[in-house]
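User: For a benchmark we're assembling, each entry needs the component sequences followed by a predicted structure for the full assembly. Here are entry 17's components. Please fill in the structure.
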Amino acid sequence: MKILTSAQIRSLDQFTIQNEPISSLDLMERASNAFVGWFCNQFVNTRPVCVFCGKGNNGGDGLAIARLLSQLSYDVQVVVADYTPNASDDFTQNLDRLKTHLNLAFISSADQFPTLSSQVVCIDTLLGSGLSRPAEGLLAGIIHKINALPNKVVSVDIASGLYMDKANGENDPIIEPDHTVTFQLPKLAFLLPQNVRFTGEWHVVDIGLSGKYIQELPTPYWFTDKKAAEKLIQPRGKFSHKGTFGHALLLAGSFGKMGAAVLSGRACLRSGVGLLTMHAPVCGYDIIQISSPEAMVSIDKNDRHISQFPDLEPYSAVGIGPGVGQEPVTIALLEELLDQVKVPLIIDADALNILSSNRSLLDKLPPNTILTPHPKEFQRLAGESGDEYERLELARDFAGKYQVIICLKGANTAVILPNGEVHFNSTGNPGMATGGTGDVLTGIITSLLAQKYKPAEAAILGVYQHGLAGDRAAEQKGQIALIASDVVENLGW
Ligand SMILES: NC(=O)C1=CN([C@@H]2O[C@H](COP(=O)(O)OP(=O)(O)OC[C@H]3O[C@@H](n4cnc5c(N)ncnc54)[C@H](OP(=O)(O)O)[C@@H]3O)[C@@H](O)[C@H]2O)[C@@H](O)CC1
Ligand SMILES: Nc1ncnc2c1ncn2[C@@H]1O[C@H](COP(=O)(O)OP(=O)(O)O)[C@@H](O)[C@H]1O
Ligand SMILES: [K+]
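Assistant: Structure for entry 17:
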């Protein structure tokens, strides 16, 4: 799915109106119906509702939603923020359509804010995608009052006061909803951790905007949903054999951190690779042989840390990093590997930290190498950034400069390609914030690379399947009990 800017969404709106064709009022009705469809599934009609409206089209949606909900026997109250004499046309028309018996008040001061029982569900339609400056005055006052309520709050399209595609100021008044129900496409703002308070759980409802036009609109931002991910999976041919699926080499583990190697190795095997060789220090030999009988082991001359790698000729992909430490022998190994490797490569964990502290190695990274930093590792690699929008730009610059693929890990891991495309992941949960889950991801992506998935596809699909396995694991165990081994055991393709 594409992620568009608010300007692009405006033009999409106009294109749909002109070419479907549909009147803007009918499109607003369709959007409002889509919202109401979601709302009725979430809240029964014994819950009273208060709709807070601005005077733009977001407020117009609010008026239409109020009418539709009252037709469904919800007890609806409407509060219009009378902050401007200029209302949008569709707002005015929907005001006319509202039956006079509806409980409707225009307020011009936050002191007129209604007293609401805690059962009331607040619907926020003060400001939508047309936000052009921070809310102030009356709107800010209402936003603060709503945020101070214990009530459930649902924002329509986007929380009022939140920009869709750029950073807000630290003290901007913004609604803090429990849910955001957004139209047609996810919005960039929802995917950045700094906005979590202003997003709540978010849901996309289809309002039939032109698919053809969406296809034409250029954007660097994408959202990997189930459909996009499943399209990438390569089915197995009937006559395929283990040679068809490549031979992965994983360089992982050190004394005290052999678990990282085992987790990534097991994840690699569970992701379809034909053969796996794990290269480890002497201390890891028994551990790997016993825990992963499907893997072959190549043993280093060094007892505790890896210092060499086997002849690369047999391998179709190489993964390095989980649990390797940053000993001088391992730094030397990485440098030599970068000089020699001719097959796709993924670099994780301490191997990334080695790159950060030996920056001349960055210039040796083969094109399309995959780097999988968590935010701290990324900071060491690319430097500080003011906020997450800036960090994204920094990552795009870095990926372009070094022609590498960056998986910036976290909730909604962002896969950033050398051409500047950013693919946000849709799977995963906070249960995965536990040691070793990153090692699992490295194993999965190494496996896909060995199977000859293109690096960009291996990164996008690997990140998606990793999160999906985490979601399945959380269903079984709950998020709190989840450990990295559960993610491995729940991989399913
Ligand atoms: N395609 C879709 O997705 C569809 C979208 N639809 C709905 O339309 C919504 C977008 O509507 P919209 O463009 O009228 O924007 P909205 O935010 O309601 O108001 C903008 C007005 O507010 C003003 N204004 C801005 N900032 C302000 C501030 N801080 N304080 C005070 N005023 C401020 C701004 O003034 P200006 O910037 O011109 O000075 C302008 O007059 C969208 O979110 C969705 O709910 C559906 O109905 C149909 C399909
Ligand atoms: N809140 C979260 N929601 C979704 N995924 C998460 C969350 N927290 C962590 N993860 C995922 O878990 C993994 C953690 O990786 P990392 O920090 O490298 O862990 P480790 O080094 O212990 O293996 C990443 O893939 C990340 O995307
Ligand atoms: K809103």
